[in-house]
Amino acid sequence: MKYKTIFLMMLILSFIFSFASCSNSKNEKNDTNTTMNESTNEAMITMFVMISSFPEHLDEFKFFLDDDIVGGLQEAGNISFLGFQDDTNPERLYLYERWENQEALNTHFELEFTTNVFAFARGGAEKAPPEFLYLEDLLPILNDNDFNHSLIAQNRESFDRATIINIDSEEREDFISRFIEIGTMARAEEGVFTYDFHSVVDNENTFFIFERWSDQELFNQYGNHLNELGEHATILTMDEFSPVDRQK
Prior knowledge:
By secondary structure, this protein is an alpha+beta fold. It has 6 helices and 10 strands, in the order αβββαββααββαββαβ. The strands form 2 sheets. An 8-stranded antiparallel β-barrel has the order 3-5-4-10-7-9-8-6, surrounded by 5 helices. A two-stranded antiparallel ribbon has the order 1-2. Helix 2 packs antiparallel against helix 4 (112-125). The longest helix has 16 residues, at 172-187. It is globular and about 45 Å long.
């Protein structure tokens, strides 16, 4: 069974990988760090936004964010745009976005449905300023089938998880090579919709992984390798909250 292949490989890699390992090339750049937009030769912008809402404003906050997502997906420079709610802390909301380039993102920030979100948040709805993680692809997107389009609008369920990982600088290159291998295998497996692997811009020792599996049972059987990272990882399980059809 194909699932066993990825599970066994992940298990082997988990045991082989050790945070005591060192790299002699810790300052070397990985060639796949940035995905380029072929039409403009500009860097694609990917970001993960973390928002904390006061409970009494949560439903209205989600309404504004949903409007922002719907509007954003109509923009020429948008590639994908997903909204999530944390499973364990429902007052935490997340946005996972891809834009063709910085100009496209700047345009998005100036449009009414986006400024409405900022105005509502700053008007007392948010517990703290949103956190923006700007991301560089370490496992580049190759075609449209790799993009993280909405499944909820298609009446298809998924198990979604984001993981933020902090490591020591001497382990960086070994960590990157091992998780590129894991991600490449994961993308080839039936039942794995998405496996995205990023470094965080301006913090080269922090990494971000977004996973979308067909269901949690499958994930529990074959995909819980990141649990091996222990205190190095912050794991976010979440549900897509927007009901609208956002498929391009």
